[in-house]
Amino acid sequence: MTLGASSDLSARAARVLFAVLLLGACSAPSVGTALSATPADVLLPVGKTDIVDGRGRFREIYCAVREDHGATLPYDRPCQDSAALWRLPDEPPPTGRPVRLGPSQAGLTVMLVPGLLAECVSELSTLFEDARANLQAQGWRTGTIQTRGRQSSETNAEVVRDALMAMPAEQRVVLVTHSKGTVDSLQALATYPELAGRVVALVSVAGAVNGSPLADAVPTALAELVSGSALLACPPGRGAEAADSLRRSVRLAWLATHELPRGVRTYSLAAYAGPDDMSRVLWPFYRTLAGTEPRNDGMVVAFDAIIPHSTLLGLPNADHLAVAMPFTAAKTPLLAGTLIDHNDSPRSVLLEAALRYVEEDLAAAALRTPSTR
Question: Which residue(s) pair with 108 in the sheet?
């Protein structure tokens, strides 16, 4: 990379971070609390007791992947304690069943759907950028659906729909979504029923399923300023449409009035981290959320990241960026050394383990429901 190109990237990064920090200007004091002393069921709001707890089996798969080849992948962490996945008192025990490793034989295509402002930083980082090579080596096809970084979930649902319908009809797709990308993808599946024949599963990573209190706290005028600012190198939104899509009142009302296609199985990874493992750029947001709920990833509260009726795979010990968006010292040295300074999360093992769980679950569901052909 030339010096000029590096300077351009730094300038773009500064503009995006200015917008992010502007949104976090009003923050509440930090609240200290134990992050691993209470069971996970306190994270689940009333009415979501039908969520399948897959944490025990998911940890088994995660550990098997790590033991087989994952320890050689970037940012290795132990699998048995809370270093990579929070181990809470109510986590189910391991099943004892063997884990199938080796190249995937299911013929699935993994399509990644990024979140808010991701389009604006795509030259600096893309969703699971450092994990895709390992996925491909393990036999999965991968691709990205580039949604609009500052536009509404309705707009992005159409983007997701068009991208999926342009793919060969015989492909079986697993959507892996992050942050607002989860909201956009759920909106697409509920709005366009024709997608149910193409999408077999959705894995949400730190998804803003119930919205975020941060979106409710941002004044409309400030959200409109960031949405329409010419400083960001991505198409502007209309008014405060992106923030509106993440307001809790909007998301909860939407969930109450929409159903997802029954043929699409959903899975949730709900991240959170302590203040010592939170990148500096997220500190103001973490402190605001921690005033009422310390189990947050700096953008989303953990229990707001669980899709109704889904399988809870695990609780990654990572902040909102680290769990899915790599900002490496080689590519963004200024950011990695300053504001995004806790980005060392084992994303490759996490993503592979999630897909192996999905494949196993889909195969079991097929056996329970024999084909009518």
Answer: 172
Is residue 120's pLDDT more than 50? yes
Domains of the chain are 45-227+234-368 (3.40.50.1820)
Q: How far apart are CA 166 and CA 91, in angstroms?
A: 41
Q: How far is CA 18 from the centre of its chain?
A: 23
Q: Indicate whether 239 pLDDT > 80.
A: no
Both tokens of 338, joined, read 């300053």
Dihedral (C-alpha) 97, 102, 106, 107: value to the nearest 10 degrees? 160
Q: In what order do the strands lie in the sheet with 265-269?
A: 52-53, 311-314, 265-269, 199-205, 172-178, 108-113, 141-144
CA neighbor of 281 nearest in space, from 8, 24, 26, 35: 24
Spatial CA neighbour of 354 closest among 172, 185, 138, 48: 138
Task: Assess contact for 316 and 271: CB atoms under 8 A.
Answer: yes
Residue 108 carries which DSSP code? Answer: E
- Whole-model pTM: value is 0.88
Contact by Cβ (8 Å): 142, 112 = yes
Taking Cα atoms as reference points, which of 130, 300, 329 lies closest to residue 212? 300
Axis crossing angle, helix 3-23 with helix 220-228, rounded to the nearest 10: 160
**Are 268 and 11 contacting, i.e. CB atoms less than 8 angstroms apart?**
no
Count of CA atoms in the C-beta half-sphere (13 A) of 267: 25
Write down how long the chain is: 373
Residue from 294, 354, 295, 346 nearest 323 by CA: 346
**Which residues have C-beta within 8 Å of that of residue 361, sequence separation ≥ 6?**
54, 201, 265, 267, 311
